[in-house]
Amino acid sequence: MPLRRQPLKFAATVILDGSGNGTASLGPNVGQRWIVRTASVNIPNAVAIPQCNIYMGAAPIPAEFIDGTWTGNMDSTSKTNSYPLTHGEKIWAVWTAGDVGATATLNITGWQDTGYAR
Questions:
Q1: Closest to 80 (Cα-Cα) out of 65, 62, 58, 63
Q2: Radius of gyration of the chain, Cα coordinates, nearest whole angstrom
Q3: Using CA atoms, how far apart are residues 109 and 75, in angstroms rounded to an integer?
Q4: How far does CA 87 lie from the centroid of its chain?
Q5: CATH number of the domain within which 71 lies
Q6: Do 25 and 39 touch, CB atoms closer than 8 A?
Q7: Ordered per-residue pLDDT tens for the chain, 118 residues
Q8: Which domain holds residue 52?
Q9: Both ends of the chain: CA-CA distance in Å?
Q10: What's this model's pTM, rounded to 2 decimal places?
Q11: How many CB atoms lie within 10 A of CB 2?
Q12: 111: how many CB neighbours lie within 10 A of its CB?
């Protein structure tokens, strides 16, 4: 199967828990490779100023950390551009100290390759 490239644009949401924390993630399916150009985060009508860390890999652990923000609302990073993702890997947004019950969103853009064999 020949490699096919198409635009990538997805979003994932999470409801922040009783401590104002939450994690959202997105990742490619089998046979796909994602080149994430930008990742942005937002929380509509936020009162608290949460932190948000972005990770790329198998889990949101220190070794997979890409970038972070002190304002986990209405912020973005392009540091994701150098790290392609394949099946089993994800991009993670981890919020802390946000508004309890708020909806936090991770948005990604870039390129999706299909027909990719690892």
A1: 65
A2: 14
A3: 14
A4: 15
A5: 2.60.120.1330
A6: no
A7: 578 999 999 999 999 999 999 999 999 999 999 999 999 999 998 899 899 999 999 999 999 999 998 877 788 999 998 789 999 999 999 999 999 999 999 999 999 999 866 5
A8: 4-114
A9: 13
A10: 0.92
A11: 5
A12: 14
Q: How far apart are CA 46 and CA 52, in angstroms?
A: 13
Helix (H), strand (E), coil (C) string for the chain: CCCEEEEEEEEEEEECCCCCCEEEEECCCCCEEEEEEEEEEECCCCCCCCEEEEEEECCCCHHHEEEEECCCCCEEECHHHHCCEECCCEEEEEEECCCCCCEEEEEEEEEEEECCCC
Structure tokens belonging to residue 55: 């990770």
CB 72 within 8 A of CB 41: yes
Report residue 93 as tokens.
């947004």
Structural domain total, the chain: 1
Are 106 and 41 a contacting pair, CB within 8 Å? yes
Tokens 């220190």 sit at which residue?
62
